[in-house]
Design brief:
Elements: H1 4-14, H2 19-30, H3 43-49, E1 54-58, H4 64-71, E2 77-82, H5 85-94, E3 101-105, H6 108-111, E4 122-126, H7 134-147, E5 153-160, E6 164-166, E7 169-171, H8 174-180, E8 184-188, E9 193-195, E10 198-208
Parallel strand pairs: 1-2, 1-4, 2-3, 4-5
Antiparallel strand pairs: 5-10, 6-7, 8-10, 9-10
Length: 209
């Protein structure tokens, strides 16, 4: 069952009158390589190391990364999974002529299972799973594991460290992630330390073995 509190908070941001202009400006500000090379975002390094052409952007929001992969990294197909129809509407308004993106409005744990991926794929989450309860995250990860071809990469700007849970903010141990996805090899990065609470970190990569 999707965390409805998280979805409600998430969706409301995109239903505001100023949402389109806010998102458009945010996309312009992100249109530099430096955004994906921040200490808590492993995407830039992973994209440099692994030359894929297919991606799954989980929690795609208004589609900045989705379209960046097409326009700047020459991906030929990106599946953008996003539960908020309002966010997808904004994405399609910002990028009206994008033909290589497949927008999928729905919950990731239900939609990922429908994908038919035939070659190694780049999976992305950017602080999406941190806002969902363990049950929902487990369902999403199980779905990724089922459809991801060997050699696929999951680039995660997600928190990790000592277990910590509160409403819409969850930090899970490296052992938790590895236990849920035993067919994946994880690398956890400690360059970016959180202060809410302290002693936890953000950013890791996993490869499907």
């Amino acid at each position: 069952m999707f965390n409805l509190d998280s979805y409600t908070n998430h969706n409301s941001e995109y239903c505001q009158n100023e949402a389109f202009e806010r998102e458009r400006l945010a996309h312009e500000q992100r249109d530099s390589e430096s955004f994906l090379y921040q200490k808590d975002i492993p995407h830039g390094d992973n994209l440099d190391k692994h030359k894929f052409t297919t991606a799954v952007d989980i929690g795609a929001g208004t589609g900045w990364l989705t379209n960046y992969l097409i326009d700047k990294r020459k991906y030929t197909k990106v599946y953008a999974i996003e539960p908020s129809q309002a966010a997808v509407d904004i994405a399609q308004k910002i990028y009206p002529d994008q033909k290589k993106v497949k927008y999928i409005v729905g919950f990731a744990e239900e939609e990922i299972n429908k994908l038919k991926l035939k070659k190694p794929t780049f999976f992305s989450t950017m602080c999406v799973l941190a806002h969902l309860c363990d049950e929902d995250v487990t369902s999403i990860l199980t779905a990724i594991d089922m459809v991801a071809p060997v050699g696929s990469i999951w680039s995660a700007s997600e928190p990790w460290g000592d277990s910590y849970h509160r409403e819409c903010w969850h930090i899970r141990t490296p052992e938790w992630w590895s236990d849920v996805m035993p067919k994946w090899q994880f690398e956890f990065y400690s360059d970016y330390e959180l202060n809410d609470p302290t002693g936890r970190y953000k950013g890791f990569t996993a490869i499907r073995l």
